[in-house]
Model the fold of this input.
Amino acid sequence: MSASQTLVPGWMEIVESAVHDANRQHAEEAALAALVDQYASTLYRVAFSVLRNQHDAEDAVQEAFLRVLRHRETLGEIRDHRVWLVRIVWNIVLDRKRRAKTRPETDDIADLARVLPAMGLSAEQRAAALQHHGRVLKCLEKLPAREREVMLLSAFEELSSVEIAAVLGVTESSVRSRLFRARNLMAELLQHKRSTT
Done:
């Protein structure tokens, strides 16, 4: 130990504290990077399903991760990061939509269909799936807003009723009844669409 180290009381504690802080910050940054890698595409789909604009959806996802960065010390306390992040981005996009009074919700259906999963499909299967997704999305647009919200979160993001209730801030029974109505309406709309084509 050097003379300067013996003259400063608590020197070892200061060094250990600095190392601990640096390690903690590095761990928080790594955890945030892992969240971005794992959930960015999910959050983009959620944002795009509401905003219907690629740049607005990307901005909303970026804002969501900036909020997470500001509260990164709480990451360890979150039980379900996926639901927590979806709720953050959902609130951001709804707030943006209310403030901006965006263009009609029927815009950019084709863009939304393109962001849906198409892994492992041949070109022909992808084209058929894209066509089917387009029909489903057009029917989805005809649902009342509450039913459309739960359907988007359930069908496209595969959230459970409990998770959807957490995202929307409503009861699980309310989510289940909205899903029931949404599925019945979707079945009727799809059946009608099939019979008219």
Remarks:
- The chain has two domains: 1-103, 110-197.
- DSSP finds nine helices and no strands in the chain.
- Residues 102-118 have pLDDT under 50 and may be disordered.
- The two ends are 85 Å apart (CA to CA).
